[in-house]
Structure formats: structure tokens, C-alpha cells
Amino acid sequence: MTPPDRLPGAEGRARDVTALVTCRQLARVYGRGTNALVAVHEVTCALRPGDQVAVMGPSGSGKTTLLHLLAGLDRPTAGRIGWPVFDDRPRGRIGVVFQGPSLLPPLNVAENVALPLFIAGLGDTEARQRALTALAAIGLADLAGSLPEELSGGQAQRVAVARVLAAEPRLIIADEPTAQLDSDHALRVIDLLAQVAYRLDAGLVIATHDPLVAARLPTTWTMSDGALAC
Ligand code: ADP
Ligand code: MG
Questions:
Q1: Which of 87, 156, 172, 180 is deepest in the core (most CB within 10 A)?
Q2: Shortest-distance Cα residue to atom 21 of ligand 1
Q3: 30: Cβ below 6 Å to ligand 1?
Q4: Is the dihedral of CA 146, 170, 23, 12 positive or negative?
Q5: Edge-to-edge strand order for the sheet containing 78-82?
Q6: How much distance in Å is there from the Cα of 226 to the middle of ligand 1?
Q7: For 177-225, how does the pLDDT look when each residue is reduced to its tens digit (9 = 90+)?
Q8: What pLDDT is stored for residue 16 in this prediction?
Q9: d(Cα 173, Cα 204) in Å, to the nearest integer?
Q10: 57: Cβ below 6 Å to ligand 1?
Q11: How far apart are the CA of 114 and the centre of ligand 1, in A?
């Protein structure tokens, strides 16, 4: 049997690649007793460097719950999850674009994008330069000095994407990152995420309702009532 940290590569070649994340029989139940709600159950999956996956499924099917588990932001109530490539300590190594608002109101756009880089210990000049480069790549260089309250929902969403791109993580997890964008901007954001993930040999997981977005990525997983079809 293939051990979970030695899975075949994304292109079908046998690559001796350590998986970014592996899940076995994963479950997440919210609440207890009669209030228990099974958001994710019996999910078995793995992501390797270079994998690019769209997670589709109706609202309430468990996409956000699964993405938070993959990011190490939440713990499963059953099953096993591991991040072999990070020695099973994923903290700070995974970039997440959250479904809801996530910019810090007192910081301007460039400072928001640079914040994870400061936290990672980068110097002022390099952090600011990388933030500006990521903002330019996503077409928002003009807004570097704006405050989050001055942005539209779609602009704020793109800034959150730029923040992840600037950090250059090995695993990028984006939860409906185009929900507030028109289709032109949506596809540009997805293509940018896919290009950067390809350049970094990172894994990419994007939850989306939009079949046009899913069609941009080579692999689609479908969630239904907490179950995942890979
Ligand atoms: P999706 O992202 O596909 O819309 P979610 O993962 O947000 O799905 O939600 C899956 C199910 O779990 C839904 O029924 C939702 O109401 C429930 N749920 C999500 N978060 C919580 C929570 N913090 N507490 C209780 N139930 C939750
Ligand atoms: Mg969701």
C-alpha cells in the first residue's frame, strides 16, 4: 500500500513527494447530543505540491468547515489529519483567504497585506515591497494607502487574496474568494492564484459555487451533506 506521505504526483507521474496534507475518515461535529450537527464526515483526501482543486457544493454542505480543518484552524472531532511536509505543524505555513471580511480596520491596505510578513520576521522594506508587488499583480496598487472601510466588498476580497500571494505559502486555501466579484475579475483572480501556486509548486484549494471558476482548475471535489467526493 502507498504510505500517505508518498502519494503519486498530480500529473500521474510517480513523484516521490511529501504530501502537504492528508486526511483519513475526518469528521467535524458542531454541538452535542440532540443539538449535534455533522458538518463534515468520513472525508479521506490528500493534497500534494502542485495540486489545484476546486471544492464545489451547495451552501451548508461543509466546504468552509473542511477548508478550516485543512488549514489547521479547526480540529476534527474524529479521524486523522496531518501535514507531513510541515512536520505536522502547519501554523503560519498555510495561506488562507477567508469567506468573510478579514482585513484589520486600523491598518491600510499595504499594511494589511504586509502584516503576515512582519509576523514572519521580514524587515520593513522587504515586507512593504512584497506587499506592493502583490497588490500590483492583482490590480490594486492604487489602493495601497486606503483603509479597509474605503473599499468595496470585491476590492477587500482581492486585498485578502493579495495578502496570501505576498506570503508565498506552500498551501493556499481560498474560501469563495470570488463571491463578490464580477465574472471578469473572478476569473482573473483565479488565474492569478493558479499561476502563483504553480510558480511556488504550492497546493491550491478553492471553494466556489461558480462552475466557471471550477473549470479553471484541473481537479474538482464535490461536497454534499458533509461528504466529499474526490
Ligand atoms: P458551506 O461552507 O458549504 O456553506 P459550512 O462548513 O459553513 O458549509 O457549514 C456546514 C454546516 O455546519 C452548516 O449546516 C452550518 O450551519 C453548520 N455550521 C458551520 N459552522 C458552525 C458553527 N460554528 N456552529 C454550528 N454549526 C455550524
Ligand atoms: Mg462556506
A1: 172
A2: 30
A3: yes
A4: positive
A5: 37-47, 21-30, 78-82
A6: 9
A7: 999 999 999 999 999 999 999 999 999 999 999 999 999 999 999 999 9
A8: 53
A9: 6
A10: yes
A11: 30
Q: For 21, what's the count of Cα atoms within 13 Å in the CB-facing half-sphere?
A: 29
Q: What is the CATH number of the domain that holds 95?
A: 3.40.50.300
Length, in residues, of the chain = 230
Residues paired with residue 113 on neighbouring β-strands, in sequence order: none
* Cell numbers given for 75: 480540529
Domain count, the chain: 1
Helix (H, G, I), strand (E, B) or coil at 167: helix
208 lines ligand 1 (CB under 6 A): no
String of DSSP letters for 168-229: --SEEEEESTTTTS-HHHHHHHHHHHHHHHHHHT-EEEEE-S-HHHHTTSSEEEEEETTEEE
Domain that holds residue 168: 4-229
Please identify every residue whose CB atom is under 5 Å from ligand 2, which is an ion: 63-64, 99
SS3 95: strand
Locate 114 and state its grid cell: 504586509
**Among candidate residues 187, 132, 186, 139, the one with its CA nearest the CA of residue 163:** 132
Q: What pTM did the predictor assign? A: 0.91
Instruction: Give residue 100 CA to ligand 1 midpoint distance, Å.
Output: 13
Nearest CA to ligand 1 atom 25: 30
The residue type at 74: D
The DSSP string of 97-134 is E-SS--S-TTS-HHHHHHHHHHHTT--HHHHHHHHHHH
